[in-house]
Write the structure tokens for this entry.
Amino acid sequence: MKRIILYISLIVLLASCKGCNEDNSVVPLVSVDFSININQASFFELTNITGWVYVSGGSRGIIIYRNNIDQFTAFDRHSPYNVDEGCRVSVLEDNITIKDECSESTWLILDGSLISGPAVQPLKQYSTQFNGSILRIRN
């Protein structure tokens, strides 16, 4: 009976290990809550659908991408693969792919989903709200 309880306890412990995986992919939690006016010159690229910019914030910076007329996505630039190395992801010249130069992992800029590489996690995404000119990014 004790052996069964031990096995059940072990299974419960392993199942409750949130963020535990082999590649150390837990991007640090950093408070994010700011707004930008996309009509400012420094955010000109965001006035066009498929435009993107880098901004300060998050753990290693943030990529903001305009998906359509009123939808944006925002991703932390901290690579979710071996986060202790502090590698930063960057948008490639195709403007569709985001790459971690340390691991060669790639993600899709549309939704942060993993395309290839040793990483197993999507990019850390922040919530966005848009009211026509002001874009709010937060977690």
Notes: The chain has one helix and ten strands.
